[in-house]
Write a structure and sequence with these properties.
The chain is mostly helical. It is built from six helices and no strands.
Length: 126
């Protein structure tokens, strides 16, 4: 779909595609919406998803995430940067090298579904 959209835009041809809001292609291709007299689109609504107990475990971060507000142009340019500039397999600097600060041997076995904390990554006593 995006390849066809780009091809039509580059050729200055009109095209109708199904997109959503917020979505980076709206900003990148300067798209305009068809009229929506019944208000069926979910324009301007984006959600953050996390595991069930995230807000209880990390209340400060949950509050911060819940306070994020940005207009569609800002969201579109941010998403374009993340997806198209820094997306999977793309780098603008050399990859990180060296030890990852996670000990190779430890008596603790961190739960892979939980993020590591400083206590998880500190070296085990010898």
């Amino acid at each position: 779909m995006l390849a066809e959209l780009k091809k039509a835009v580059d050729a200055k041809n009109e095209i109708v595609v199904t997109l959503w809001h917020p979505f980076w292609a709206n900003t990148t291709f300067n798209m305009r919406d068809l009229k929506d007299p019944k208000g069926r689109s979910a324009r301007g609504r984006a959600s953050l998803l996390g595991r069930e107990d995230f807000a209880q475990e990390y209340p400060e971060i949950a509050k911060w995430l819940g306070s994020i507000k940005m207009d569609e142009a800002t969201h579109g340019s941010l998403e374009d940067l993340v997806v198209n500039t820094y997306g999977e397999g793309r780098r603008t600097r050399p990859p990180l090298t060296g030890p990852r600060s996670i000990p190779s041997t430890t008596s603790r076995s961190p739960d892979p579904a939980r993020p590591l904390t400083p206590a998880d990554s500190s070296p085990s006593p010898s």
